[in-house]
Amino acid sequence: MRSFRFKLMMASIICILLPACITLATYNYLTQDAVKEQAITNSQESMLLVNNYVTNSLKYMLNIANSIQMDSELNSIFKSNVSGHRYTGPAAEYDEFYDKNKIMKQIENIKIGGEECYVTILLANGTYYSSYSIYEYNPLDLAKEPWFSQLKNLYGFESYWVGTTPTVFESEKVRNPYQLSVVRTLRGEGSTIYGYVIVTVMENQLNHNFENLPNNQEFMIMDANNIILSHNNGEKIGQTFPFPYVNQDSQQISSDIVEVNNEEYLMTQRSLSFTGWKLVSITPYKMAISKVEAIFNKVFVFQIISFILFLLLLLYLLGTFTKPLVRLGKVALTVQKGDLEKRSNIRGEDEIGRLGYLFDQMLDRIKEMIAEVSLTQARKRTAELAMLQAQINPHFLFNVLNSIRMKVLLRGDRESAEMIGSLSKLLRMTINQEKETISLHEEVEIVMDYVVLMNMRQKDPISLKTDISADALLIKVPRFFLQPLIENALIHGLTQSAGTIMLKAWMEEKTLILTVEDNGKGMPEEILHRLRKNLVSGEEQGQGDVESPKGFSSIGLLNVHERMRLTYGDKFTMRIDSSEGEGTRITMYIPHLEVTTTYV
């Protein structure tokens, strides 16, 4: 047989070991998803950073084109030039130089503070203005480019983004082999093109945004045909992107794990607004998760070591804490054999110390407790006998009343027999305490018997009229909840004089609506207001303060309200309406419950 200490230790080990193993297994399983999510998060953060840099560079090119396209003074000079205007007069040569100088200064002002770029304004008549010399590149050669014919479809602020092409500027060819450009058209009245604005930057100016990224992460810019326009090492420019591409038109960042040649890659992408291009990053998945996975592995090893150390500490502490219990068990075994003089002498401020002290006290008082138990059993038997006798007396009275009623009826005194019969019925209901609820028709019979008894007591009889719908007769209600209302109407409403009490009941959906109405004296407005307030506050005042004469029941209106609220809860409501000289009506809304709650 295993000891308590052994069972406690085994239970502790199982309760710790099993959850720990499940936790570690779950941790190992979930770590894979966490590593993947972290790798995706890192990739997307890098994407956001690069996207901001690249977007700013592209917006800078657009801002230059916008500034020239929106400058009315420059456009006025361009239109005048294209229309064939000739500088005349003695200052013709100066005016021509002044206008050209104004254009060049404006171009230089636009470029101040920004990245290095090449700006070309090519007019329809072959005139051009550029931020570079003709020795670098002849602007007229732009009209020979294969994309130039597509510019006729540009209107307003529409832009044509020229993909990566070999650098045409002599001084840049060695350092920057590729360039990118954006083109805008200048249109006059009738949408006639009178010029073009071309802004060109070197591909390396976009490429340098990728320099501070991890070495294993490739970033590239692609056009709508998945042709690589820019790459962080420049080797793949002009090639077709080899990976499957998803969400090509999405403005949001998306990441996915793709498999190419049996190797997984983490691909993150986002569309570049206003260009039709895409920004894509590619990272070998194993390299993307290597650092994060190493951190998770270290945490896992730390958890294993911590678990083993704390398990050993737990076993030691359990052995120490259970020593007093082992000793207490040995003392209990001695007592079981009949030695009541043995004591544990375990003391302390904790539960075990108090248990040892109480155990010793129990042994000291064992004989006294046996005597007390014997005395208690004797008293219990006496109490049970008294309760039995108390139950016999009401039944005896009920049987005697029935015997008297039969003898009176045989002698021909039917009125007295009916009075005794009504009293007998009421007595029967008081005896049957186990029946907390009765049907409504039984409750109505009780109040009818009550009225019969009250009419025999007072000089002027009252009339109790009922109007109960058939579907309401079998509804279960608490016993004796109507009698106090009838008593109230008889004593306070009719003042024990002749009159009529009307009892109505009907069903609306699952609610029993019951009214008790008298044609008595009613009550003043202030008393009615106070009575309504007392029902809410729970204090019986006003008419409830008038003590009923001694009768079968003196339960007040508030008592009925409280009983019904205890039975049905907040769904039960009671309303009192009265007018002075016209009578009083009490309306109760009783919810129909499948199982009626027992009231206190």
Automatic annotation (TrEMBL):
Q: Where is the HAMP domain?
A: 319-371
Q: Which UniProt keywords apply?
A: ATP-binding, Cell membrane, Kinase, Membrane, Nucleotide-binding, Phosphoprotein, Transferase, Transmembrane, Transmembrane helix, Two-component regulatory system
**Subcellular location, record wording:** Cell membrane
* Residue ranges occupied by any Histidine kinase domain in the UniProt entry: 392-594
Name of the top EC class for this enzyme: transferase
What Gene3D superfamilies does UniProt report for this protein, alphabetically? 6.10.340.10, Histidine kinase-like ATPase, C-terminal domain (3.30.565.10), PAS domain (3.30.450.20)
InterPro entries registered for this protein in UniProt = Bact_2-comp_sensor_kinase, dCache_1, HAMP_dom, HATPase_C_sf, HATPase_dom, His_kinase_dom, Sig_transdc_His_kin-like_C, Sig_transdc_His_kin_internal
Q: Note the topology in the membrane.
A: Multi-pass membrane protein
Catalysed reaction(s) here are: ATP + protein L-histidine = ADP + protein N-phospho-L-histidine
For this UniProt entry, the molecular function terms from Gene Ontology, in alphabetical order, are: ATP binding; phosphorelay sensor kinase activity
Membrane-spanning residues:
299-318
> Record's SUPFAM superfamilies?
ATPase domain of HSP90 chaperone/DNA topoisomerase II/histidine kinase (SSF55874), HAMP domain-like (SSF158472)
- GO CC annotation, single: plasma membrane
- Give the EC number(s) under which this enzyme is classified: 2.7.13.3
* Protein name per its UniProtKB record: histidine kinase
